[in-house]
Design goal:
Largest sheet of chain B: 8 strands, parallel, barrel
Number of domains of chain B: 1
Number of strands of chain B: 12
Largest sheet of chain A: 8 strands, parallel, barrel
Distance between the termini of chain A: 31 Å
Largest interface: A-B, 74 and 79 residues
Mean pLDDT of chain A: 94
Helix content of chain B: 25-40%
Oligomer: heterodimer
Low-confidence stretches of chain A: none
Distance between the termini of chain B: 36 Å
Structural class of chain A: alpha/beta
Chain lengths: ~325, ~325
């Protein structure tokens, strides 16, 4: 049997970081409080001092901390991104998670000793792309885009010599990550530039003709009948009309849960599992991390993965195995 | 490049699944009639389509080249398996034409050899641009969501020629999932190539009937047509000398003519815009990204294009 899978868990606040460590996270990943990371939401993320304290809390308990600096530096303004790399290094982060080629180049030359991971936002979906980053910037691990099936991940792991990390739970991008400008098309703010997708400042809920309409940047993303729960208008999870029919054209408002697939992912040669949700509260973190802790431990023993009820914390209370099952495509 | 220096008009790759003969004849017409300097050929969106027009590829390339067009071979934007990688390798390894990388894997295969970077590779800043130039990139078509300020900073550093897309539906996203298939209750593996039904993509409206997006197999595009004919002068002032037109079913020869005439100062942007509107069926226009707004917005540039669409919609919704 392979080694135990590493469990990489999100934290948007110091309280969430402690909750994740306490619930059994091997690693907590987080970002600084600015546009240098892909969850640049109000009230979220870490100051330098908070990172220092978080690192201390995690390291004392045997856990690691990765810092996501995974947006694309603005032309003419690379300062904040370089500072984020410098500070993560100075404070003793265990790794940084990068998406931009120029920033990876900077990190590799300015802080060669600081371990570098490739963010899912870099969209490295094949062995040649992964090798490019490995050879150019000595990347040690790649977070795989959510476009690959389990057989494709297996095949990829045979071809590349660096570690792979895959998402197993949480919000699900249906587009190739880092290659989606839907949010900025509707709102002017994008994951790549601003670290936000479908940002709350551009969201409106309006009562119209007895239905609740959710809008993003003025565009209707969904409409709900009375009594129906009005979900957040994430653009790609909306209902649209194409070919004369209204439907969830891109994806239903579901979230990913691949907990039952841990044995397969282990066999596929994956090193680490990632839980999405830096924007989620402490209760979510505690519950999801604990469930995956049990599952990872069971899988490592070759035991059946315990059936955990996580439906209460999944988006839209619906779950999917996503692209890991080929039929998703 | 300062204003007044060399100007290049490029026809981007056909993004849609046109019937092979139509695809061939389109390029023949471009070769014979279009006022473009460079023509990109090759499947970018879906690897399943490439075999259909492969039989015509050689004659299309030859016709374009003998008409004096610079031919660029465009490659897949999303590569997920060995079959797709083999398609890429075949293009890269068997040609003397400039190859355009739309995934970083292609840039890896092209390392050390002059090549182009397409708009599907994330080039947001000077450091990335300079790294890719050192890797061999001589030309970079910028991502569509860049604002003028970013384009200006990149143009200033300019270790490679920069190209900006100025016409056509904006490529906004690419996915492993095929939305055309999904829309027809099919899966990607058994898609029956339903994307061939929509020469400019399948319109996607909001529940309120507002035109919003368009789908093209695994790709999602804007519903509005990017039209920066009114921004050409501003782009040239920033130092951009290459302009890309993305093919649609309207008469691209006329569209190219209009852009060429404006670039040559032989036609006013308003007049060009009217000619272009005739080829796009009066579709809503967009140039918001360039102006630092929502991509769907349309900023009327004095002396520039004017949209027939609901241009203040997205712009007006900004806080």
């Amino acid at each position: 049997m392979t080694e135990k899978l590493e469990l990489v868990c999100p934290a948007g606040t110091p309280a969430s970081l402690r909750a994740a460590v306490d619930a059994g996270a091997d690693v907590v990943y987080l970002g600084f409080r600015d546009a240098t990371n892909a969850r640049n939401f109000p009230g979220l993320n870490f100051s330098r001092d908070e990172l220092r304290a978080g690192l201390d809390y995690a390291h004392t308990r045997g856990a690691h901390v990765y810092v996501a600096i995974n947006t694309f530096p603005r032309a003419g303004d690379s300062g904040p991104w370089r500072e984020a790399v410098d500070d993560a290094s100075m404070l003793g982060a265990d790794a940084i998670i990068l998406a931009d080629i120029g920033l990876a180049d900077y990190a590799a030359s300015a802080h060669p000793q600081l371990r570098r991971h490739l963010s899912v936002q870099a969209s490295a979906s094949n062995a040649e792309a992964i090798r490019f980053y490995q050879e150019a910037f000595d990347i040690k691990r790649v977070v795989l885009p959510r476009v690959l099936t389990v057989p494709e991940i297996t095949e990829l792991n045979r071809k590349v010599s660096i570690e792979t990390e895959v998402f197993v739970f949480g919000g699900l991008c249906v587009m190739a990550e880092g290659r989606c400008a839907l949010s900025s098309y509707a709102t002017g703010e994008s994951p790549n530039i601003n670290g936000v997708c479908s940002p709350a400042g551009h969201v409106r809920y309006e009562e119209e003709d007895g239905r609740m309409v959710s809008r993003l940047g003025g565009y209707t993303i969904n409409a709900f009948a009375e009594g129906e729960k009005a979900g957040y208008p994430t653009l790609c999870k909306g209902r649209f009309v194409a070919g004369g029919e209204a439907r969830y054209l891109f994806e239903e408002p579901t979230s990913l849960n691949a907990i039952h697939m841990l044995p397969e992912l282990m066999a596929a040669g994956v090193t680490a599992l990632k839980i999405e949700g830096r924007q989620r509260g402490r209760a979510y973190i505690s519950q999801v991390v604990a469930a995956f802790r049990n599952a990872v431990d069971a899988a490592a023993e070759g035991l059946a993965v315990p059936r955990e009820d996580l439906i209460a914390v999944t988006e839209g209370q619906r779950k999917t195995s996503g692209v890991y099952e080929k039929t998703w495509r | 490049m300062a204003k007044g220096s060399s100007i290049n008009l490029t026809l981007g790759p056909v993004l849609f699944n046109w019937a092979p003969e139509r695809w061939r004849d389109f390029y023949f017409q471009i070769a014979d009639e279009a006022a473009v300097d460079t023509v990109c050929v090759g499947e970018v969106v879906c690897s399943k389509r490439a075999p259909f027009f492969a039989p015509y590829l050689a004659e299309v390339v030859e016709r374009l080249a003998s008409a004096g067009k610079e031919v660029v071979l465009s490659t897949l934007a999303l590569i997920m398996n060995e079959r797709e990688m083999a398609q890429l390798r075949e293009t890269v390894e068997n040609t003397d034409f400039l190859v355009e990388a739309n995934d970083i894997s292609a840039a890896a295969l092209l390392k050390g050899r002059p090549h182009a970077i397409g708009p599907f590779v994330n080039v947001y800043n000077e450091d990335t641009l300079s790294y890719l130039a050192r890797n061999g990139a001589t030309r970079v078509t910028l991502p569509v969501e860049l604002a003028a300020s970013s384009i200006a900073a990149l143009a200033k550093s300019a270790p490679a020629e920069l190209e900006v897309m100025v016409f056509g539906r904006l490529p906004l996203a690419i996915s492993a999932r095929c939305y055309h298939a999904r829309c027809h209750n099919l899966s990607r593996d058994n898609c029956q190539f339903v994307c061939e039904k929509d020469a400019d993509g399948l319109d996607v409206d909001t529940l309120d009937g507002e035109p919003f997006l368009a789908i093209n197999g695994v790709q999602t595009l804007s519903h509005a047509y990017c039209n920066m004919v009114g921004d050409l002068s501003a782009l040239r002032d920033l130092g951009i000398g290459r302009f890309r037109l993305s093919p649609h079913s309207g008469d691209m020869v006329r569209v190219a003519e209009a852009f060429r005439a404006v670039l040559d100062n032989k036609m006013a942007p308003e007049e060009a815009s009217a000619a272009i509107a005739g080829e796009t069926g009066g579709m809503p226009l967009a140039n918001g990204y360039f102006h630092g707004k929502a991509g769907a917005a349309f900023e009327d540039v004095p002396g520039g294009a004017s949209s027939t669409g609901d241009e203040d919609h997205a712009a007006g919704s900004l806080p």
